[in-house]
C-alpha cells in the first residue's frame, strides 16, 4: 500500500469515527419515552360512550312485510310513482357509539376528558390499562373549553402528575398518549410548536400547538412533558382530511384544572363578562399610540349596560393590563376576563391619550345567552379549505 493510499484510508477512518460520534451524540439527545410511558400508562384510560339520537327516515308501503321494508321490485318499484322515495318521513331512534381517551387526576376516581367525547351519551365506560371496565358518572362538562369531568369507583387507582405550564417553552419535547382509531395506549412524540394559540370561534382557550401525531380517538388523552407530567389535554387537529396533518392542539392543563375545580365545587363553570369589542394593536397602531411594540387590546366598541359601560372604560382605550396580567395580544383578554368570577372588581391598566391610567371595573358573570368579550375575527377563518376538527373517534 502506497503512502497516499494509506493516508486516504486513515483520513476516511477518522472522518467515519467523527461522523459516528456526532450521530451518537445526536441520538443521545433524543428523549427515551419508554420508562415515562410505563410509569404513566396505568393512569391513562380509554373511554367508550353509547347514546341514542332521533333520525327521520322514509316510510315504505312494504313496512312490516318479510322484505324488511324494502320493495320486492328493487330499483324499478312502480309504487315509487305514487309514494315517492321518502314520503312521509317518520322519526326513528338509533344507537350512537363513540370513543376517546382520558386520564385519572386523583385517587377518588376523577377523570378528565374532552366534552365532545362525552356529548349526550347515556352510557359512559372507562377502560383501564389492567383491563378493568368501570361505569363512569358524568360530574359535569364545559363545552366552551371542551373539558368534561367523570368519576369512577375503583381501588388502587393510579393518577397522573400535573405540570406547571408557566415553564413551558417552544421546542420542548412532548408525548401524546391515547387511543387513535381505537388503538389503545398509543404513544407519539413531538415538540411544542407554539404556545397561546387561538383558534377560530374559540375565545377561551390558549391552546398548546404541537406536532405530535394526534388522530380521531386521541381526544381527551394527556400530553406529557419529559418529566412525566401532564401539560395538556389533546383536543383538536388542523386538517383537510380528517386525520393528522402535522398540527395538533392541546388544552393547557392549568386551564383544565381550573374548570375541573369549579365543576367539582359548584357543578358548573362561572366566567366573567366585560362587554367590549376589541381589535389587535398592529405595528401601525402601536406607532400611533407611541408604544414601543405592538401590545394590548384596543377597545373598538362597548356593549350598552355592560360592566365596561358602567365603568370609566372608553372606546379608543388600549387595555395593557387586566387584573395584574399583562395583555400581550388582544386574544389574551377574553381568556383573562373569563377566569374572573362574576361580581368581582378588577384593576385595568389602559393607555389613553398617550398616558397610562388604572381604572376599576366590576366584572359580571357571563350569562347563558353568550354575552362575552370577543376579539374581532376575519370572516374567512377557514383558510384554503383547511379546518380545525375535534379528534373524537365516532
Automatic annotation (TrEMBL):
One of its GO terms (molecular function) is serine-type endopeptidase activity. It catalyses: Acts on substrates that are at least partially unfolded. The cleavage site P1 residue is normally between a pair of hydrophobic residues, such as Val-|-Val. Pfam families: PDZ_2, Trypsin_2. Its main location: periplasm. Its EC number is 3.4.21.107. Keywords: Hydrolase, Periplasm, Protease, Repeat, Serine protease, Signal, Stress response. The active site is at 116 (charge relay system), 146 (charge relay system), 219 (charge relay system). InterPro entries: PDZ (IPR001478), PDZ_sf (IPR036034), Pept_S1C_Do (IPR011782), Peptidase_S1_PA (IPR009003), Peptidase_S1C (IPR001940). Substrate binds at residues 50, 116, 146, 217-219. GO terms for biological process: proteolysis. SUPFAM superfamilies: PDZ domain-like, Trypsin-like serine proteases. GO terms for cellular component: periplasmic space. It is found in: Periplasm. Residues 259-354 form the PDZ domain. The keyword Signal applies. CDD domains: cpPDZ1_DegP-like. Belongs to the peptidase S1C family. NCBIfam families: degP_htrA_DO. Might be efficient in the degradation of transiently denatured and unfolded proteins which accumulate in the periplasm following stress conditions. This is Probable periplasmic serine endoprotease DegP-like. It comes from Candidatus Ignatzschineria merdigallinarum.
Amino acid at each position: 500500500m502506497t503512502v497516499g493510499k494509506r493516508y486516504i484510508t486513515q483520513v476516511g477512518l477518522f472522518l467515519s469515527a467523527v461522523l459516528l460520534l456526532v450521530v451518537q451524540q445526536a441520538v443521545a439527545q433524543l428523549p427515551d419515552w419508554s420508562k415515562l410511558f410505563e410509569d404513566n400508562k396505568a393512569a391513562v384510560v380509554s373511554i367508550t360512550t353509547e347514546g341514542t339520537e332521533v333520525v327521520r327516515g322514509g316510510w315504505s308501503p312494504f313496512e312490516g312485510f318479510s322484505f324488511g321494508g324494502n320493495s320486492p321490485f328493487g330499483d324499478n318499484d312502480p309504487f315509487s310513482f305514487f309514494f315517492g322515495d321518502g314520503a312521509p318521513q317518520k322519526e326513528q331512534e338509533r344507537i350512537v357509539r363513540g370513543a376517546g381517551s382520558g386520564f385519572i387526576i386523583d385517587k377518588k376516581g376523577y377523570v378528565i376528558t374532552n366534552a365532545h367525547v362525552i356529548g349526550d351519551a347515556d352510557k359512559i365506560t372507562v377502560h383501564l390499562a389492567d383491563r378493568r371496565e368501570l361505569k363512569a358518572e358524568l360530574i359535569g362538562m364545559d363545552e366552551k373549553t371542551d373539558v368534561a369531568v367523570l368519576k369512577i369507583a375503583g381501588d388502587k387507582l393510579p393518577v397522573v402528575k400535573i405540570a406547571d405550564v408557566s415553564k413551558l417553552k417552544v421546542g420542548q419535547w412532548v408525548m401524546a398518549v391515547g387511543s387513535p382509531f381505537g388503538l389503545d395506549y398509543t404513544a407519539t412524540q413531538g415538540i411544542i410548536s407554539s404556545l397561546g394559540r387561538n383558534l377560530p370561534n374559540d375565545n377561551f382557550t390558549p391552546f398548546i400547538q404541537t406536532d405530535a401525531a394526534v388522530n380521531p380517538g386521541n381526544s381527551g388523552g394527556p400530553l406529557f412533558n419529559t418529566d412525566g407530567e401532564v401539560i395538556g389535554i389533546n383536543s383538536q387537529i388542523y386538517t383537510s382530511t380528517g386525520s393528522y396533518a402535522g398540527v395538533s392542539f392541546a388544552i393547557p392543563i392549568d386551564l383544565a384544572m381550573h374548570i375541573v375545580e369549579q365543576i367539582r365545587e359548584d357543578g358548573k363553570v362561572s366566567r366573567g363578562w366585560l362587554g367590549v369589542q376589541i381589535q389587535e394593536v398592529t405595528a401601525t397602531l402601536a406607532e400611533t399610540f407611541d408604544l414601543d411594540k405592538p401590545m394590548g387590546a384596543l377597545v373598538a366598541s362597548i356593549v350598552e349596560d355592560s360592566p365596561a359601560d358602567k365603568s370609566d372604560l372608553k372606546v379608543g382605550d388600549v387595555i395593557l393590563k387586566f387584573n395584574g396580567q399583562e395583555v400581550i395580544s388582544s386574544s389574551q383578554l377574553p381568556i383573562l376576563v373569563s377566569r374572573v368570577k362574576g361580581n368581582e372588581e378588577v384593576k385595568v391598566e389602559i393607555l389613553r391619550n398617550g398616558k397610562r391610567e388604572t381604572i376599576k371595573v366590576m366584572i359580571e358573570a357571563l350569562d347563558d345567552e353568550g354575552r362575552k368579550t370577543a376579539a374581532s375575527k376575519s370572516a374567512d377563518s377557514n383558510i384554503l379549505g383547511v379546518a380545525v376538527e375535534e379528534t373524537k373517534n365516532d
